[in-house]
Prior knowledge:
Rossmann fold; alpha/beta; 8 helices; 7-stranded parallel beta sheet; 255 residues
Amino acid sequence: MKIPTPFSxxxxxxxxxxxxxxxxxxxxxxxxxxxxxVIVVGRTESRLQSACSAWGDAARYIVHDVDACDDAPRLADxxxxxxxxxxxxxxxNAGNHVKKPALDTSDDDLQRLFQTHVLGAIALTRAVGAxxxxxxxxxxxFVSSMAALFGIPNVLAxxxxxxxxxxxxxxxxxxxxxxxxxxxxxxxxxxxxxxxRRSLENDPERKNRVLSxxxxxxxxxxxxxxxxxxxxxxxxxxxxxxxxxxVDGGASIGF
Length: 255
């Protein structure tokens, strides 16, 4: 008799927003390795197409902008149609960023980031979560940030949006967990993506600050976020809900 692994995602169908690059892509790859069927969502078809062609038949993609909140139900229905079975995992990873001093941060900056990180994610969570609640089975994961855990200068809009999600996660977890839909977040530290690499390599002083305040004294790998996501969405985490898991080499608790 084969002993099942509690970290397996066999039989699961996951929708991952912002899945064509960076952390979203790593999460999708780890989900596939754990046995899930994965549908990635993004605005750039070439990225999505390239990723899925390398992953094989278990991966599909949909071009979609999560800012279009009214289209969230259609995205959820289309994803389930493509998969041929209901969605059991949702990863709200799509995001945008603004880096500027607080006094220069405009109402438009705040609106744009809240539209993606908060309003778009909530709209899709409602659309996908409705079916999960009917079936009394599902896992919803938000990708948060260190900016929701401690103060970082020049990212007021981003910090506000990610901090808002902490309340969203707690509220949803309390409301939906009795119906067997778990809601959690993973909060990446400094991770070696194309975007962060460009930022840090052009700013050696900032890179040294990042390393000096990270107890493991290194930048994280995207797949380290991916495997944490697998855990939170797997049977191994069946009694975990409403949590905000920092995967940051100790940066959030270091001195």
